[in-house]
Specification:
Helix content of chain A: 25-40%
CATH class of the largest domain in chain B: Mainly Alpha
Number of strands of chain B: 0
Strand order of the largest sheet of chain A: 2-3-1-4-5-6
Number of domains of chain A: 1
Number of strands of chain A: 6
Mean pLDDT of chain B: 88
Distance between the termini of chain A: 6 Å
Oligomer: heterodimer
Shape of chain A: globular
Order of helices and strands of chain A: EHEEHEHEHEHH
Shape of chain B: globular
Number of domains of chain B: 2
CATH class of chain A: Alpha Beta
Radius of gyration of chain A: 16 Å
CATH topology of the largest domain in chain B: Glutathione S-transferase Yfyf (Class Pi), Chain A, domain 2
CATH superfamily of the largest domain in chain B: VPS9 domain
Low-confidence stretches of chain B: 211-229
Radius of gyration of chain B: 21 Å
CATH architecture of chain A: 3-Layer(aba) Sandwich
Strand content of chain A: 15-25%
CATH architecture of the largest domain in chain B: Up-down Bundle
Strand content of chain B: under 5%
Largest interface: A-B, 45 and 40 residues
């Protein structure tokens, strides 16, 4: 099996200071907080992944975490194929904020695949968010959950990779959505109850297996 | 070779005829923007495949860069000719443009403090403002898009310098970028902004709308092993 898929639009959501930008930088260029990274675009990054012999192009959108820009968020998540919802494991409020994002996405009727990531796993000793609670919540909304450390580079590729696989799998089950043109449709928000657009828990869903 | 030059080649006569026929028969009214875009994209997709395989002067472009250029040239050629019929084509566009212009104008008091970011030297943003203004001067969707990308590059650059000057060492984030983009938009208040954005969003070919030139090139170059694996 080989070929190209995408580009898929992935949006990174979460409260300010949870490490959205750092996760993105770590994933795209394997850097954490250095000069080289700051030469790149601030809001948009592109990455090609190789998943089961398929080149998957991801268009990754960082979002502003400041509450005052919250009303602009729909511009980012509209037509997104996947959303990475980030919280800081040492900050309970940032985890509660994830649930609010999920509610908002559901109210707006977006069909994008969701994954929840608890960042700063290097600060495990200061963790305030019980992992079991986070996992239970993620299961309840049919999303993946994992933890990562953008600082150390742990769990970052896994989180993005798993989300990309879920996006691929959901597209494979909803062929009508695979065309770029259909996702471009302006202002058209597809109803969330569409089973085909629910995130997959399967590991082998990509393009029907080979 | 430029697309226009290639069109002059003998083998391109049927292509020119096909393009002229499409432009001539394109309805002047009765289509919504979405319907017009759909019709144009279908025509462009089909014509591009045919052009790159059957029209000798274009089929000779064996490499990807040459083919991309040819496809871009085709889009630019067609959309420039249809621009007058497609720009601001919905009845509400004029009002929307005016409403947006007034709205942005009413925000002229907004400063860095309101946006919650440290101030930067606004003269550095002149180039970004200029690029946002140029949006209205070009006809082809790609050229308009390049203006937006250029203004974003300027903003990135200004931010990068500001961060270096402050002695910090951290990557730029959307937290830095979005406020300055908003600030630049207020400064520029680009003419016919609504119509221009709708034009690009509708008529830029969907396959080229998401991942754009420049933004994507670097990352692609960095991962050749993935790309050609």
């Amino acid at each position: 099996m080989s070929g190209q898929e995408g580009p898929f639009k992935i949006v990174i959501l979460g409260e300010g200071r949870v490490g959205k930008t750092s996760l993105l930088r770590q994933f795209v260029s394997r850097t954490f907080s250095d000069q080289e990274a700051s030469t790149q675009s601030a809001a948009y990054l592109d990455k090609i992944l190789l998943l089961r012999g398929t080149q998957v192009q991801l268009s990754l959108w960082d979002t502003a975490g400041q509450e005052r820009f919250h009303s602009l968020a729909p511009i980012y998540y509209r037509n997104a194929d996947g959303a990475l919802l980030v919280y800081d494991i040492t900050d309970l409020e940032s985890f509660r904020r994830v649930a609010k994002w999920v509610e908002e996405l559901q109210v707006m009727g977006t069909t994008c695949v969701l994954a929840i990531v608890g960042n700063k796993s290097d600060l495990q000793s200061q963790a305030k968010v019980p992992k079991a609670d986070a996992e239970t919540y993620a299961r309840s909304i049919n999303a993946r959950h994992s933890t990562a450390s953008a600082k150390l580079g742990f769990g970052v590729d896994e989180a993005f990779g798993a989300l990309a696989e879920d996006v691929l799998a959901s597209r494979a089950r909803a062929p009508g959505q695979t065309q770029t043109s259909s996702r471009r449709t302006r202002g058209a928000l597809v109803v969330a109850e569409d089973d085909a657009a629910q995130p997959s828990r399967q590991k082998s869903g990509c393009c029907g297996g080979g | 070779m430029a697309f226009r030059e290639m069109l002059k080649h003998e083998s391109a006569i049927p292509l020119t005829a096909r393009l002229q026929d499409f432009v001539k028969k394109f309805p002047t009214q009765g289509l919504s923007r979405e319907q017009a875009a759909d019709r144009i994209h279908k025509f462009l997709s089909a014509t591009q495949d045919w052009m790159l395989s059957q029209v000798l002067v274009f089929a000779a472009e064996a490499d990807e860069a040459g083919q991309t250029n040819a496809a871009e040239g085709l889009e630019k050629f067609l959309l420039s000719r249809l621009h007058a019929r497609l720009f601001s084509m919905e009845p509400s566009d004029l009002t929307e443009d005016e409403t947006l212009r007034r709205r942005i104008d009413s925000f002229s008091w907004v400063g860095f403090k309101n946006l919650g970011v440290p101030p930067v030297d606004t003269s550095l943003l002149d180039l970004a403002v200029e690029q946002l203004h140029s949006l209205d001067k070009f006809k082809a969707p790609r050229d308009k898009m390049v203006c937006i990308l250029n203004s974003c590059r300027v903003i990135n650059d200004v931010l990068k310098r500001a961060i270096v000057a402050s002695g910090a060492s951290r990557p730029l984030s959307a937290d830095d970028f979005l406020p300055l983009l908003i600030y630049s938009l207020i400064l520029a208040n680009p003419p016919r902004l609504h119509s221009n954005i709708e034009f690009v969003a509708a008529f830029r070919h969907p396959s080229r709308l998401v991942a754009e030139a420049g933004c994507t090139q670097k990352q692609r170059l960095e991962s050749p092993s993935l790309r050609y694996a």
